[in-house]
Amino acid sequence: MTISNHLQIIGERIRQAEQQYDRAPHSVQLVAVSKHHPITAIEDAFAAGQTHFGENYAQEMAEKAQALTAHSITWHFIGPIQSNKTRQIAEIAHWVHSVDRLKIAQRLSAQKPAHKPPLNICLQVNISHEDSKSGVAPESVAELATQIVQLSGVKLRGLMAIPAPCSDFEQQRQTFAQLRQLQELLNQQGFGLDTLSMGMSDDMEAAIAEGATLVRIGTAIFGSRPY
Ligand SMILES: *Cc1c(COP(=O)(O)O)cnc(C)c1O
User: Fold this and answer.
1) Ligand 1 centre distance from Cα of residue 35 (Å)
2) How many angstroms separate the CA atoms of 144 and 147, rounded?
3) Quick one: which atom of ligand 1 is closest to the CA of 31?
4) Which of 77, 127, 200 to mutate to test the pocket of ligand 1 (most atoms within 8 A of CB)?
5) Is residue 226 over pLDDT 80?
6) What is the model's pTM?
7) From the CA of 150, how far away is ligand 1's center (Å)?
8) Where on the phi/psi map is residue 190: left (φ > 0), alpha (ψ -120 to 50), or beta?
């Protein structure tokens, strides 16, 4: 099976889940996670119509973006962010899903090139309360959001989570529901968020059922990652 075949299957899974869970048609956008996969894999996916790509490492994203300037790609940065990498990220990414502290948002805001529109950002929430995971604690999200909306170089669009792996559909849904409820709470406070970045290869349907607008899929498109 080719990348194009995989994309078609994922596209059908997304459309079917939208229908099954009363989501508006095309309300879920696929972000193809290409980390550790070669530039040729991105070219193949692009030729098949995929335009949104997700990367976890600033240097890798920069190299790929440099090689693919002829392609009109929307780059999503989804990995942990070290403060010495924010400039590279701000210069290339259109979206950053993994903001979890003010300092990072301030740097992204200041370092975004002046000629570009504000950088779309999501706050990564540690929804499963895992000690090892990055992400802001659910109870601290509102305070962080209040500070971030004052920055002019970034536009706060929504929330992102990477729940602890779990194979039970209902449990997956419950976890994603927490992120959706947190977004609803923020919107009651006037934040106007329109984005929920949640769902990967193994829990995409549950995420769509609970309102995902961006799903981040790697393995089901590109196969297992070559290390
Ligand atoms: C790698 C990665 C993905 C893609 O995961 P798959 O299981 O390969 O679909 C999605 N989101 C984040 C944050 C990732 O790091």
Assistant:
1) 9
2) 5
3) 10
4) 200
5) no
6) 0.97
7) 30
8) left
Ligand 1 in reach of 96 Cβ (< 6 A): no
Strands 119-124 and 214-217, bridge-based pairing:
unpaired
Degrees (nearest 5) of the Cα angle 77, 82, 84?
Answer: 105
Nearest one of 87, 75, 80, 85 to 112, comparing CA atoms: 87
Residue 189 has pLDDT above 90, yes or no: yes
Query: Does the Cβ of 219 fall within 6 Å of ligand 1?
Result: yes
State whether the beta carbon of 171 lies less than 6 angstroms from ligand 1.
no
More confident residue, 18 or 165: 18
Report pLDDT digits (tens) over 73-112: 999 999 999 999 999 999 999 999 999 999 999 999 999 9
CB 17 within 8 A of CB 205: yes
